Amino acid sequence: MVPRAEFGSYYGRPILKRPRWKAPHMPGYLYFGGLSGAAATMAAMADATGRRRLSLTGRLTALTAAAAGSALLIDELGRPERFLHMLRVFKPTSPMSVGSWVLAAHGGLTGAAAASAVTGIAPRLGRAAGAGAALTGPVLATYTGVLIADTAVPAWHEGYRHLPLLFAGSALASAGAVGMAAVPGREGAPARRMVVLGAGLELAAAGMLERGKGMREEPELVSEPYRIGRAGALLRYGRALTAAGAAGTLVAGRSRTAAVMSALAVTGGALCTRFAVLYAGHASAEDPKYTVVPQRARVTRA
Amino acid sequence: MTNSLFGPLHDVAEEAGYADPPERAGFFTDTSVCIGCKACEVACKEWNAIPEDGYALTGMSYDNTGALGASTWRHVAFIEQSAPREVDQGDGASRWLMASDVCKHCTHAACLDVCPTGALFRTEFATVVVQQDICNGCAYCVSACPYGVIDRREDDGRAWKCTMCYDRLGDGMEPACAKACPTDSIQYGPLDELRERARERLGDLHDQGVTEARLYGEDENDGVGGDGAFFLLLDEPETYGLPPDPVVTTRDLPAMWKWAGGAAAALAGCVAVSFLGRR
Ligand code: SF4
Ligand code: SF4
């Protein structure tokens, strides 16, 4: 436990505004964006190595998740009918602007790849689109770390080193989970390896985030929202589910039931992690100590 | 393009693309003369036709608006301190601090940098304004502002904040709050002039023994490149609900993209590795 922080404030009122991003939209978008990105990359590799079923699964997953993520993103806007204003400009200083363009490109490419795979029309163009989506995919899965870190919310901003890796690992595991549930046996082996690798990255990144590793001022305090309250509990559930899912994956090659159960556990873990990140941000903005204490320490030292 | 993300930046409007901009305009709020009359809050509401905040009482002090927000663009804080600081307050054992807060119109405005639609823009006076016909209510600016100024109005879906009365500035008038302030606690003018006046006032106060007086937001070398609206305070910034040392989030943006690039490469690498080996 971090000792009670002594600090001045205006009647204990928050300094920052609580993020307007909410559940389930924002964590849902983070999950689906990651799933779509990693699934597209999985599909392209499966395609290149002649794994037809895994490739088709990846393409359909990538398209469905991109569509679901976009729907959540649009519904979260205060003025959803103005969604296209996102594509009025391209601003490298705005991760949301960059992300909107990546999402638009990725959605188009996954759509073309999936349509071609299902209908058999223009197979070469379909493969090219699939290869393109394999490049936009990893960007879509990780830019969301920058999206939320590029804010004044201390727990998010100071997590800028961990969040992209956390989302990358989680995305890998999520896409692998769908692949392993849908494609049994030998052909699904790469998906199972993705689950294990992804779960490892997710657990490692979450552990560093929770401990405040690499954060600058008062790391123990700034990382506290990830350990306590609703966010802390969700991160712990997420860790248990992810670890259980990864362990189950080791026998999932032989048992279909184990494959489906493990996939569900990994998906649950990925969702818990995303919700935890949102709630940690809310908690971090709502209590002025997370803003004042690290800044005060910096001023006093200077 | 030097210092476009962080650090001192003198030609703010020029950097934003204006060929021959007028002098940078700003607010100097001298809280040592504020009497807490809230004329600025009212004048701002009236001129800008801002909807009411309701009649809820905060219960913590005479301040019933509480904070800046989508429909409060000037906010007067009331701080009741039980023990006087170094100043001799006569026989009274307490003092009131009053301060009218406002959007800082930062040199490096995080809200503006992150806005994905271009709804937030830099005016020729180097102030920061939301274009209401463009904003799609993504609320990114809300989380990016290190001062907690801008907010989304939920019934309207768009983000709102102080415009420094952009419409009045264009006609050579001063903002409504500065016009209404009876004690000249809120002063409007060319920023350089205001900074000089503020330093003089600070010197006077220090000479009078008010040693706790300090300027806040006037330094170009601070975390946001200096504020277009700065303050003279009589206590630590956090006492007034201001962050002690805010830093624009984009300072770390290049590093953020680097870490994300590394994570993207790790993801692609892990997928590739998963497909190695015999079928
Ligand atoms: S104080 Fe906040 S809302 Fe105002 S210009 Fe600075 S970042 Fe933007
Ligand atoms: S809410 Fe409006 S002003 Fe704020 S970042 Fe989004 S589009 Fe820009």
From TrEMBL, chain A:
Domain of life of the organism encoding this protein: Bacteria
Membrane topology: Multi-pass membrane protein
Annotated signal sequence range: none
InterPro entries noted in UniProt: Electron_transfer_protein, NrfD-like
Keywords of this entry: Cell membrane, Membrane, Transmembrane, Transmembrane helix
UniProt similarity note: Belongs to the NrfD family.
PANTHER family: PROTEIN NRFD (PTHR34856)
Annotated organism of origin: Actinoallomurus bryophytorum
Gene Ontology CC: plasma membrane
Transmembrane segments: 29-48, 98-122, 134-157, 163-183
Location(s), subcellular: Cell membrane
Protein name (Swiss-Prot/TrEMBL): Formate-dependent nitrite reductase membrane component NrfD
UniProtKB/TrEMBL annotation, chain B:
Binding site residues for [4Fe-4S] cluster 4: C115, C135, C138, C141
Entry note: cofactor: Binds 4 [4Fe-4S] clusters per subunit.
Binding locations of [4Fe-4S] cluster 1: C34, C37, C40, C181
Principal location listed in the UniProt entry: other
Localization in the cell: Cell envelope
Pfam family, one: Fer4_11
Protein name: Formate dehydrogenase beta subunit
Residues bound to [4Fe-4S] cluster 2: C44, C162, C165, C177
